[in-house]
Amino acid sequence: MPGMTDVSDIVRADFYAKNGYPHEAWRLLRRDSPVRRFELDGYDPFWAVTSYEDIVLVSRQPRLFRNEPRLVFSSRRFPVRRPEEVVRSLLNMDPPDHGKYRALVNRRFTPHALSFLRPHIEELSAKVVADAARSLIDGVIEVGECDFVTEVAARLPLAVILDLLGVPRRDWETVFEWTNQAIAPGEPEYRRGSTVLATAERARLALFDYFGRYVAERRREPREDLVSVLATSRIDGDPVSDFEILSYCFLLAVAGNETTRNATSGGVLALIEHPGELERLRQDPGRLPSAVEEVLRWTSPVIHFCRTAAEDTELRGQRIRRGDLLILFYPSANRDEEVFPEPFRFDVGRSPNEHLAFGIGEHFCLGANLARFELNAILAEVVRRFDALELAGPIQRVRSNFVGGIKRMPVRFRIRPVI
Questions:
Q1: Which residues, at least 6 apart from 408, have a Cβ–Cβ distance to it below 8 Å?
Q2: pTM of the full predicted structure?
Q3: CA neighbor of 271 nearest in space, from 253, 287, 259
């Protein structure tokens, strides 16, 4: 394919760390071969699925395109292990188990249930932003700097999800470190083992061991938290196994923290890079809900998930064999010219905005409503409190082809006093 010599970057973690998302490669793939087979040195063969239409089609056929046995794509240096050897969570479950296990906590994440949390989330958000403004002195406008990722974006989702799980505040930082190691074990700063795989395994075991103590406690004395819900639940009349409960806790701690953190930091970066859109929000805070959706579309924190063909089939005229691996690239779908007018324009008033940042179909993100609440709260505080906002140095991105994250983002700000 002419001019396509760099499309293999779509799976190379080093590229993401250095350059961010390979949007140009995805754009060319959508145009010329939206379902394309790759055979790259060091990687298993795979089909790259890059168009909105095809990702929706695959996602809505969970029996034909299965989550098991492989959910995340990596090089052959990191061997694929069976899900039951690592975790067994909603992400790697297929029907009918997926529906049964999702139902255990689904009602806790409905808009109605979360509406009772809104004041708590907004209070936490205000405190997080105020804490970041270290130079604020009794309402006097001061200029300050902070690392927006570690001091703001990471704090709110971490506080909310761990609070819901029932984790004591004293342990939040430790759990946060483990989630970083689990989600991006290839990042040198997070590595704690001799290999990437060893780092990920060490973090998983640490989280399993930590939550294991709480599962035992909650079985004896249940409380009003998610660990208690899981510890006392039954599937088809039988208690849920410890392994599956711990896998659930692992998923909630990691996914409930990392993805919202990355959407928040990426969203604020977008506002810094598009000051006109930031000013639109200042002039009309009522646009915040649509701004949240645009941040989700723009950042698309989950880069990909894999699916495996359960039988021979066809997609976009391509012959897909049973056992073939497909990679669904969500950021590509969210810039699809066939769906989004001017997809490379950041527009806080965009409507409609049927993005796929939370996926679609059976595996639509369980925490989507919670993530929206958190993003709305933190962006509201940023718009309300930060009078001036700019980068104070280069950003550092996480080395991962799975989640699109910013590891460091120094910002300079002037903060408004609260009246």
A1: 147, 149, 150, 395, 396
A2: 0.83
A3: 287
